[in-house]
Amino acid sequence: MSLSGIFPIDKWEFTTQSVLNTLSEEDYNFLISRQGAQKYQKGEIIFKEGVVPSGIYFIHQGKIKKYKVDRSGREQIIYVANKGELIGYHAILAEERCPDSAATLEDSLVSFIPKEDFLTILDKSPVFARRLLKTLSHEFSVLANGISVISQRTATERLAIALIVLREKFKDEGSGEQEIILNISRMDLASLAGIAQENVIRLLKEFKEDGILETDGRKIWIKDIKRLVKKSNYG
């Protein structure tokens, strides 16, 4: 079932896929196709916060979490990037160290794109540059929205919103909307929702008892998206 009309998903996610669609075939091949792809196992780190970046990354397959770690070692997932997206470009554009870390949520295939190649295409294609700027602007709105949720929403509402957003991320994994499978650890789900892991386990059990979802190990199936949206108390 589509979220259209029942939940403003555009306020909760952004994507760089449309940015790449602005490139000519020649520029796309220069930036993406000629780069070698590296396999990453689930949980592998792609880059770490604080390092000096030498390039950006393109996701061919898999899902990548972008996250920050506080002084006590607790992880907060900022965003989950899908196949077809670019990551790591913020630090290049700002000429700063990486503001966050990135690691795989599942086995992934990722290409490294040297900084020089990225900047070459950015200079060569004004349309690409404008679309990337638009994406960055929307990204800021999404992140600001996420901050307000963590500070103002209950644990139940946070988890419901996290599950709704993840459902969109995992859509391409199923053969139909009724078969969308969220394959994510309880620790990562807690990190994304900004709540304790024990609360995630307790709330998932409650959602399951209410007929909203089913679980099998790490896997989660959303059975009643309308009731999940109601749990989010959004609107």
Describe this structure in words.
The protein is an alpha+beta fold. The chain is 43% helix and 22% strand. It has nine helices and eleven strands. The protein has helices at residues 17-20, 25-33, 89-94, 115-124, 126-152, 155-169, 186-193, 197-209, 225-232, and strands spanning 37-40, 45-47, 55-61, 64-69, 75-81, 86-87, 101-104, 108-114, 181-183, 213-216, 219-222. A four-stranded antiparallel sheet has the order 1-8-3-6. Strand 10 and strand 11 form a beta hairpin. Helix 6 (155-169) crosses helix 9 (225-232) and helix 7 crosses helix 8. It is globular. It starts with 16 loop residues before the first helix and ends with a helix. Residues 153-226 form the HTH crp-type domain. Keywords: DNA-binding, Transcription, Transcription regulation. This is CRP-like cAMP-binding protein. Residues 19-139 form the Cyclic nucleotide-binding domain.
State the strand order across the main sheet.
1-8-3-6
Q: Briefly note the structural class of the backbone.
A: alpha+beta
State mean pLDDT (0 to 100 scale). 89
Determine Rg (CA atoms, Å).
18 Å
Number of helical stretches of at least 4 residues: 9
Largest sheet, described in full? 4 strands, antiparallel
- Unreliable parts: none
Beta-strand content estimate: 15-25%
| Inertia-based shape | globular
Distance between the termini: 19 Å
SSE series: HHEEEEEEHEEHHHEHHEEH
Task: Give me the count of strands.
Answer: 11
Portion of residues within helices:
40-55%
